Amino acid sequence: MSAAPQAPGRTRALLVLGVVAVMLLVLCAGVVVVIRTTMNGDGDAPRASTSAPASTPDGSAPPAGESESQARRDEIAAEPMMQLPESAAQPQPLVADTAGPPIVVPAPTGAVVPGGPPAASGFPKTPEGALGQLAAIDEAAMSTTDMARVREVYAWAAMPGAVPEVEWSPAVGVRALISSLGGTEDARTARASYAVVQGQIKGTDGPDFAVVCVLGELTVSAATSARAGVADCQRMVWHDGRWRIGPGGQPAYPPHAWPGSADAVRGGWKELIRA
Questions:
Q1: In angstroms, rounded to a whole number, what is the distance separating the alpha carbons of residues 104 and 57?
Q2: What's the predicted TM-score (pTM) here?
Q3: N or C terminus of the chain with fewer C-beta within 10 Å?
Q4: Which helix or strand (DSSP H or E) is residue 147 part of?
Q5: CA dihedral 258, 260, 264, 268 (to 10 degrees)
Q6: Where do the structural domains in the chain lie, given as residue ranges?
Q7: CA 136/CA 138 separation, integer angstroms
């Protein structure tokens, strides 16, 4: 499966997550703002970019097996996901229906401590472990209105060749929040928190690669408070004994929905049980 052509870098960086985040702050500030995101020139959700390396560091062509593996990983990342209307992200009643059995996420072995990693770590080499690590990364990166904190999390989490920080979903979302608040100084008085509630394992390629997705509640408090369901998917690669955001572009956009709602069930989101 080939990926759809990419829009210009800056346009592609304005992810659905950023749109939802801006809408939250618009509610908080009481400002009427209309923001349209055109991913491929027509507003459709984009496919992920491919990233098969053209050559190795010494200039030679990569082994055929490596190119084939990267192509499989790009295909998993680029597979389109259901898209829901913007209203699906708004708080709404919970339902008893589910998209399937809960996913048990193993506990991390490394907690966040002063001077240590900016997110919980030590998740096992399993798809569920990759999901747990992404949840920890996104919770750390999106529970702030401080871009320095976001960059700290990205630098720790992302491998060389991963989606650039300027296009990384949490960075786009937090940057949009800060801008909507009026800039860095005004954003210091606001509070943001993100708690992952549901998830899904989109696909795997061997024991060291998984595309996983999380869905959580984003709460922003400024002049008033607002909440929305915000989702994120990333390529996770087992590298040097831990899960990291792997090489390649941003995966296809996941469906944003209020966790536990009928829309979340439609989007394939399953409850996460943290061991």
A1: 39
A2: 0.81
A3: C
A4: helix 147-157
A5: 150
A6: 9-274
A7: 6
